[in-house]
Structures are given as structure tokens and as C-alpha cells.
Amino acid sequence: MSAFIRVRLWLISPPEPSSLTGKLPVPPSCPCHVRPISPGTISWASRGAILRPSLAERNTMASEYKFSFGPWNISEGNDPFGPAVRPTVAWGEKLRVFKRLGFDAVMFHDDDIVPDIERKEWAQIEREAKEMRKAIEAEGLVTEVTAPRLWEDARTVDGAFTSNEASERKWAIERAKRCIDISNVMNCGIVVLWLAREGTYVREAKRAIDAHKWLLEAVNAMLAHDPKIRIAIEPKPNEPMDHAYIPTIGHALALGAVSNDPKRVGGLIETAHSLLAGLDPSDDMAFALAMGKLWSVHLNDQNGLKYDQDKSFGAANLRVAWNQVRVLEQAGYAKTGAMVAFDVKAMRTQRAEVATKHLANSRKIFLHLVEKVRTFDWNIEKQCVANRDYEELEMAILEHLMGVGKK
Ligand code: XUL
Ligand code: MN
């Protein structure tokens, strides 16, 4: 490789994090590295043009990303107000969609892997999990994450780890441990905790101080159950609960920090959940990335503060989507080994034969945005930051996203 190409690649590739939990290197585009640029010293525009990667290079780089979705992301279209409008797609058929749409991995709930899990003994659960692993590996897929489905059982009507009933809390911890065992069979090292019913409809229904201590106990019990498993907490501020106990990534990482093994507790950030909390998803991601704690993302979109919409990535707010991709690129997220999952839902109006477009489109938009991030002339950012001319910066980004303006 010539020195010129090496320099070129260095300039267009995101920097590699020193380790998953270690310090992230400061990316070249980080404004804190910017020194004021005196006009006329360097022709930034022409340098940007020379450094622009070829299409082939860009395609190779974008393929660093690994993509995943879950079986629930191909659905029948039922909502709280109406029944299914599309036939159920058999698992075997869903499985073929993954590769056909360019996906690499599957995210599973424990009972996506072993249906009717509560009625089965471990020997049968293990057998079925092994069969599932074989089935996905035959398609060239791996398991990205597993998650205990703690919110559908009759015992968790009023919460799982934070139920007021000790026997129900105990059941939830046992179920989470079982999920870890299944995860190991699937050769998957990350269990996701979406804490669906850990919260209240009525503040006084629970003692929140106790509830948080119980959450910590549950996390510690999971860590103790397996010396290697990592737990990625997926925060969400509401729905199904009025107020959830771990509403943000800050809460999730604080819980991890006081656990018995902080390095094995991290986070998963879902775009819609951050937006529902009134936060910016890219800043939430940046926070977790700065701590070496972003172990997965659920990219999707959300049109304002309403029910959790799980719209296709970028469909409601392309600029917010761009910033998420930008921050992932700056951190060299793909090189950490973490994947990009799309937790997206097909619109109820979508006919069965085209009810996977939300997945294909989300992936496509993501890759287009990777390309947009990589072809943006970051010297404009440097110059605008140096001049504190953020109107100019914003316009440059909007024009770049629209494909108009200066070439
Ligand atoms: C809930 C949500 C879940 C988790 C997986 O809003 O996002 O789908 O991602 O259980
Ligand atoms: Mn999710």
C-alpha cells in the first residue's frame, strides 16, 4: 500500500477505539481539536475533494457494519385498536429474509428461540436452542443479543424485578438466568434488559427506593450466574408504564456502575426511546460511547412525543438520523464489534407482500447516511466551528443531505 493510499485511508476511516471499555481516541473531526484556520493558508475545499474516497472504497468500508433485526420486526400489523391485518410469517420464511435483505444477525427474545418456554424443562429448552442455532448458522447468521421476555407472564402484571410480590421477583430473576443459559447455547455473549414493566402507573403503587435496589439485585444475580455474560440495558422512559424506573442511558449506566461487575454492564440505545425521553439519540449514543458502553443500538424513528412508533430509520427526522450515524462513525462503532439493529415496525397499512420494506429501507437509509457522513467536507465543519458560524455549518449539512449547493 502506498503512503498516499495509507494516508487517504486513515483520513477517511473512523479511528479504532483502543478497547471496548477503554478510552476512545479523539476522532480527527472532533471540534475540540480545531485550531483557528487563517483564510488562505490551505485550500481545504480542494483537499476535501482529493481525499474523497472512491465508490469502491466506500462500499468496502460501509460493509464493516453488521446489521440485525428481531423476529418481531416482521409482524402482522395488529395494534391496541385492531387485529392483525397480515398473515403470520412462519419463522422459516422470516429466516430467509435476513440474508435476502443483507442482514448478518438475529436478535432474539428467549421465547423467540424456545416458544412456550415456561412449560419446558431445561433438557428440552437446550435441545430446541441448539436446533435454532443450527438453523440460523445454516443461513450464515449469528445471534446478536438475547433478551428475557419478562413482560407477558401473568406473574409480571405489576412488574418483574420490581413486583411488590417477592415470589414474582424471584421468578423474574430465574427467567433472566434461563435466558443467559439459552444465550450461551446460542453462542451469544450479550443479554439485553428492556425493563418493560419496571415502573408504575400510580406513583404510590411501589416504593421506588426499594424498586431500584431490587433492580440492582437482579442485575447482580445475572452477573453472578455467569462469569462472562454482558448485560446491555435498553432504557425507555414510558410505555407500557406511565413512568419507567430506568428511563435513560444515564440511569442504566449508573445502575451498572454500582453493580458487582461494572465492566459487564452496558447499554443499548434505541432512537425512539431517547426521543420519548426528550433527549437527542446521538448525544445519548455519544455518552455511552465515551464510556465504552454502547453495546448495541436499536435504530428507528419517532414522530414527536406519542406512542412508541418504531418507524423506519430516518423516516421522521433525517437530520436526527444523520447525527446518529455521524457519532457512530466518529467512534469507529463498527470496529468495536457491536452491531446495528433496527427495531422497526411495518405500517399497519402495508400489504403482506411488501411488509419487509421497513427493514430494507432502514438499512438503505443507514448506508446512505454513512456515505453522506464520509463525503461531507469536514473542513467546512472545522472552519465554521473556528469562526463560530453555526448558521453556515447547519446550511452546509442541510445542503449536503439534500444533495444541493456547493459541489
Ligand atoms: C420496546 C422495545 C423492545 C426491545 C426488545 O419498546 O424496544 O422491542 O427492544 O425487547
Ligand atoms: Mn428496542
Model description:
There is one protein chain. The protein has helices spanning about 5-10, 45-50, 55-60, 90-100, 110-115, 120-140, 165-185, 210-225, 250-255, 270-275, 280-290, 320-330, 355-375, 380-385, 390-400; strands spanning about 65-70, 105-110, 140-145, 190-195, 200, 230-235, 245, 265-270, 295-300, 340. It is built from 15 helices and ten strands. The protein folds into two domains: about 5-50 and about 375-400, no CATH class; about 55-375, TIM Barrel, CATH 3.20.20.150. Helix 14 (about 380-385) packs antiparallel against helix 15 (about 390-400). The longest helix is centred in the middle third of the chain and has 20 residues, at about 165-185. The model is unreliable at about 1-60 (pLDDT under 50). Helices cover about 45% and strands about 10% of the residues. Strand 1 (about 65-70), helix 4 and strand 2 (about 105-110) form a beta-alpha-beta unit. The structure holds D-xylulose and manganese (II) ion.
